[in-house]
Structure prediction request, 340 residues.
Amino acid sequence: MARKQVKMAVVGAGIWGENHAMAYANHPLVDLVYICDLDADRAKALADKVGCASTTNIDDLANSDIDGVSIATPDHAHKAPALRLVEAGKHILVEKPFTTEVADAREIIAAAKAKGVKLMVDFQMRWHPQYMAAKHYMESGELGEGVMGYARLSDTIHVPTEMLSWGSASGPEWFLFPHTMDATRWILNEEPVEVFARGSKRILKGMGIDCYDAVQASVQFERSFITFEACWIIPNSFPTVVDNQFTLYGSKGCIELDSKPGIAISSDRYKYPFASNSITRYGKPFAHFYESIKYFADCLAEDKTPESTGNDGLVATAMIQATLKSLTEERAVKISEVLG
Ligand SMILES: NC(=O)c1ccc[n+]([C@@H]2O[C@H](COP(=O)([O-])OP(=O)(O)OC[C@H]3O[C@@H](n4cnc5c(N)ncnc54)[C@H](O)[C@@H]3O)[C@@H](O)[C@H]2O)c1
Prediction:
C-alpha cells in the first residue's frame, strides 16, 4: 500500500491538544509543522516541546501546505477553526463534541463534502481496547441483540473547577456524553430514537460555574434502552479523576466493563493514575487515546476515508441537544425533533 508523508498541525495547545501534538510528533509518516493557539505562550511552549513552529493566526495554517489539522479548542469553539480550515482544503480531525449545535455539525459536514476533504471526529473510545472488545462480542452474535444498558462517565470536581477554564460554556453533558453516547451507538449498531433526561444545577452554579452538576439521560434506541450518566461533582478524594462504567445486557449475554486501570498508587492518598505522561516511555507516549489520532494521520498517509465520521459526530450532538431540550421542557424528546 502506498503511504506518503503528511504535514500536520494542531489548533488548541491545551491539555488535549498536547496529546494530538504528541501523537503526530511520534508518527513516522507525519511532519508536525504548526501549533496554533490564541494564547501565544501556550502555542510556543507546546511547539518547543514537540519541535515545530507556533502561531496565533489560523490563516498561517490555512495558507500553508499542510495536509491536515487537529482541532482541540474548547467544546463550544470547534466550528470557526473547522470551517476556516476546510475552506482552505485541509483535512480535519475534530475533538469531541463535534459541535454543540446540530446546525453547526451540518454546516461543517456540507463544507467538507463540497471541498472533498476528510473529516473525522475524535471519538477515542472506539480505539479503547475494552470498548473494541465490547464491539467485537456484539458483532460476533455471542450476546444476541441489545436489550438494556448503563453507561456512566463522570469526573471529579477538579475538572470543571481547576482543569477547564470554560466549564460554564460546556457541562458534563457536552464534555462526557459524546464518549459514551457514541461508543454505545457504535457497539449496539442502533440509532437513537428518543431521550428523557433529568439533571441538577446547584453545586457548580453556587461556585460561579453555570452548568449542570449531573445529568441522567434515558435513551431509547431502535431496540435497546440505555441509561447514560455524567456528573462533574465527584469529590476530589475519589481515587480516579474519571469514573467510567459500562454494562450492556443482550438477549443471549452481557458485557460488563469497568475502567480501573489495574494499577493503584497509595502515597498522599489512594489513587488510580490517569495521566498520559505517566505512560510515556522509551521516548514515546503510550495510551489508547493516541491511537485515534495516529489513525487519522494513517488515513491521510494512505488516502483512506476515516471511520468515526462527521455523521457520527452529528448524531452524538443531536443526542445531547435532545437531552438538554428534555431537561428544559421536562418531557421525552424525539431525536428527529432536533435533527429536523
Ligand atoms: N478525547 C478526550 O478524551 C478528551 C479529553 C479532554 C478534552 N477533550 C476535548 O479537547 C478539546 C480541548 O480541551 P482541553 O481540555 O485541551 O482544553 P484547554 O482549555 O486545556 O485547551 C484549549 C486551548 O484552545 C485554545 N483556543 C481557544 N479557542 C481557540 C481558537 N479559536 N483558536 C486557537 N486556539 C484556541 C485555548 O487558548 C486553549 O489553550 C475539547 O473539545 C475537549 O472536550 C477530549
About this structure: DSSP finds twelve helices and 17 strands in the chain.
